[in-house]
Amino acid sequence: MNADVSDGLTRDELEAYWMPFTGNRDFKDHPRMIVGGDGCYYLSADGRRIFDSVSGLWCCGFGHNRREITAAVSRQLATLDYAPAMQFGHPLAFQLANRITAMTPADLDYVFFCNSGSEAVDTALKMARAYWCLKGEPGRTKFIGRAKAYHGVNIGGTSVGGVGPNRELYGELLDSAQLSHTLLPENAFSRGLPEKGAELADQLEEFVARYDAGNIAAVIVEPFAGSAGVILPPRGYLERLRELCTKHELLLIFDEVITGFGRTGRNFAADTFAVIPDIMCLAKALTNGSVPMGAVVARSEIYQTFMAAGGHDYAIEFPHGYTYSAHPVACAAALAALDIFEQEKLAERCRELAPYFEAAIHGLQGLPYVVDIRNFGLAGAIQLDAYPGEPARRPVEVAMGCWDKGLYVRYAGDSIALAPPFIAEKDDIDFTFSVLNDVIGALP
Ligand SMILES: Cc1ncc(COP(=O)(O)O)c(C=O)c1O
Q1: 234: DSSP letter
Q2: Per-residue pLDDT reduced to its tens digit, 127-138
Q3: I need a labelling partner for 126 at 20 to 30 A (CA). Which of 52, 313, 395, 436 fits?
Q4: What is the pLDDT of residues 243-255, one digit of tens each?
Q5: Is the minimum distance from the CB of 121 to ligand 1 under 6 angstroms?
Q6: Whose CA is nearest to atom 13 of ligand 1?
Q7: Is the pTM of this model over 0.85?
């Protein structure tokens, strides 16, 4: 093995780490080691600058190694490294909750902290079930998710998720049913939101007829699906879903783990699409990816339901939480990240760059194997015709070819996904698509 690409680690030394969502055997034979980051770029172990066209994993949109976050984190570590999350508090947690609720749409006013997107989703699902229990409807236990959805990897998120391979190995999960996804061939190569398919939301009526609203706790969707390859809601779809949830008194959960904090050009996709959920899941860009953190934001009525049913004032109203909920270091990182987000007007920056990104990504139409291109805000996907029997093969080949040419892209199923940092320049976008053009153009 070339020592440069593995930062001097031998093949044996690569063995013990069982990597997540990775072809471990391939990686350990062909390491792609990242040893540094700055702004929009990574530094590879073999000394190359690599443009990060996915903002890490959709989390570092404000750029890598932001000095303001580094300073806030080291100050916090020197002041209070940890405080118990339960029964006692520390001020930054309250400050951060206020900062978040000042940004979320009206009435989403209560923040529960956790450590990841997966934990945010499982917290939201437990919150929804407990809410109905406290309202005297314990039979509402079923969840409605959506095909091709990704809601993280904990048991709840796996249950409501709709990516087949992510569920297959795990046996029985929570009771859930999946609405159809919104990836319609007639919408191929749409720019922004696709026109056709709002009526797909009406399938919720069928589910209510089949399962009865009295058995359903919540409907959970990503406003647009990221991990499955940027699958967008057709115009009017989310509005319709909201109407139906309100009509049948179902809680609507938006998983904004990737769409939160600017990716759609506003604070949240709920703002961009003008559809307000009852519960919102956040993570990733909350700390600009620097320290793990997730959050669930609930409507006031949900919080008040728990408080009203809480019994004695000292009694625990929601028996849920993590040792590291609202970890002081994560709170410090998040507060510093939100300062950057607001001071540098990064949501606005995303809106400004989005048309350039849109024009550039659609410039790949016509290349061999490109069967669809989708985009919204600073997110996009290029779907490739599946290699017979191996849908991931071409995307993997493209991603590895890009890495060799100084570009990090993500492959997701049969697509290449892009989510560049908000601080990217037009030159970076040009570079991204010139590399993709060459690499896809050279596919066998
Ligand atoms: C929409 C969505 N929900 C949840 C998650 C899970 O987040 P995490 O990997 O932080 O657990 C992700 C991760 O990509 C995601 O995209």
Answers
A1: P
A2: 999 999 999 999
A3: 313
A4: 999 999 999 999 9
A5: yes
A6: 152
A7: yes
